[in-house]
Fold this protein.
Amino acid sequence: MNGRHPSAGNDDIHRQIAGALAALVTSDPTVPPHPYLSRHLAQHASYGKVLDDSHVPPALLPWETSASVRRLLHQQDLPRTGQSWLKAWAALEPFLNGADAISRVTSLHLAHHAEAFRRTPPQQLPATARFAGSRVTPLWSDCAPPDNVWALTDTRIEALTHTTTSRGCGGVLISGDDHGTIRIWRADGSPATTPLPTGGAAIQHLLPLHDGLIAVGSTDGAVRILDGARGRLLSEAITRPHTWVSSLTLYKPAGHPPVLLAAHSDGHLTALSTATYAPIDIPLPPLPRAPTLLAAIPQPDNDGTLLVLAQRHTVSRWDGRTLTPASQHDGDIRAITPLPAPGHYATCDDAGDLRYFDTAAPDGPTVTAHRLHTGPLTALVTVTVDALPALASAGADGTVRLWHARTAQPLGEALQGHTTPITAMATYTNAQQDRVITTGADNTVRSWPMRGHTSRPPRSPWHRIHAAAMPDPHTRVQQPLLAVADENGTCVWNIETGQPHALRLGQPVTALTWVRTDSALLLATAHKDASVTVHPVGHDTAAPEPAYTLTGHALPVTTMTTLSYQSQSLLATGSADGTVRLWNLHTHDQLAVFPDHHLSVRAVTTLETDDGPLIASAGTDGNVRLWHPGTRQQHGTTLRCGQHTVTALATAPAGPRTTGLIVTAGQDGTVRLWHPSAPHPAAQPHCFAPHDGPLTAVTCLQSPAQRTLVAAAGRSNIHVWDAATGTLLLRIVTGRPITHLSVHQPPFASSQSAAPVLLAAGQAGVRVFRLRLDQT
């Protein structure tokens, strides 16, 4: 073991080395392995075509420092089975950022449970599901399949392209973001150069020209020329003040050399020489003042290209002399791209339609694809899939779908991974195969291999989760129930048996909560029509009351909490209409309206005090207020959080070491602890900053030593602190945003079953696990 990097070649030797090295890995993942193992074992296994969980043992992964497991897994001719631990680790790799050993072990344990044991009750888990050193005991996982994260960014990428050069430096991927920064990436997702700023305006268009040159279109109205091979800006070709560049294309009029054509948001078209990038005069159509999309469509038996233009929902064609309307669409056009067959092109729009057109057929589309995306389509590129000419479409639903380039029939299953709309897409071709590269508003870049796509077995369909809830301990539920609302409906799961109970609701759900009355266990579901329906789910009487609906909000309810006051079961609801409303669940009456939040109410919860419960609410206006359910008036002063716009709220009761706390998570990425009983509660609140982007969920829990702990979630982690000392105790890397955290805290005892249960949910999945704080 001399520490030298292993080289590819001679599969059998690498296979033997991987087997010998794997035998040296201890079974305890908390014990650091020899540095050579952590650096090179995965590479030896990859070169020997045995990259699996046997040759790269799970106990090694928390210490893995090779060229990246996720990139090794992307290579071809590797085994596709026996990789559940490797796939779980690959999904975490980009997000680890210096996490400590226990956090890595814990995160891997939870990620592997999600990968290997979807919807598996705890009693059906094999002994191998345990993982030494982990601080969690997984109880239930229902998550989207592992994604193909290629890279992470701090900003939102809005333009992508791939270029090759003749200078021997190979192909690179170019990206432009909403801060005006250009990045150049190698094939493995690593940066090829330092980021290149262009002046601050968002980059929305990148167009390959020739020999590694790229045209860059920005929201400041400028078209710049980039040398992608050398990573430097060459010139600013044109600037049109007070507009933005809406499209770029290479257009070849009949009998004329190709020109770079730029469209601006006021409908103005400018032709630029591809030799000097100076404006030139050629016939171009006059257009209304509106953003314009352009595409140059090669024509059969013709040395020129036909210019196809789109403004809003209208597509027209320019033949060099006449502008002819071609088609009308139900939504604004989002992309136009040539198809492999000359004279053919495809369009996609905000209505979710994908259509194919033939320029020789003026009477509408030749093919309209089935609407498989949910919502608008955002991008189109052509690609080769298993030797078939294909078209890739990206959607606001975060998925990519592949279509036959002639028939528009779907090819294989949807590519699911992004948790937000896809903002840009490009193809990347190397010596091995085509890939589709996508970026989303979730600040991830993902790489999708095209080889073998049509022959892969279909995955279980995934539906984005809208809300999730478990009953609180005071509801006295004997069985662990989990309610989950997603795009497909709402279901109540018994996570001990794995049995589901589907609810027929009719309306999309925006929030969920459980409540106990004298006669029944109730589930409250808030709906997009601003109503709240209360359903008896678990019954204690032979004749439970029927479901009923509460109405009064003007906009959908975003958050709910229940409380018991003077033997009455009450429900507090917060809405996007800026109000908090209080309901009596016995009489079904609305008791009070608290209209003081000026913007959307983001969170409501209950603060238990010595004088009884209070309702706490937080809004987008940055204020936290307390309401008394008896007087139905505001209690105490408003907590004014200023620039700390509250996105989530939690409370902790008074204990032997703390007074009652209000905990806020903010858009600014901080968690703040407030003591509402202090003389000046807004003065210098205790603040945690995990540097995980905007925080979207927060909750409080108590350790076995009766210490108050705070758990907060951002775009890729759950962070757990000691509230009294501010010490970070544990970081659980999720790799995906968490929008809901809640704790289901049983009475403390010496057994593991008394450990608090944490529910963590986001659009990409639900996780329920015991948090073993006695070891933290």
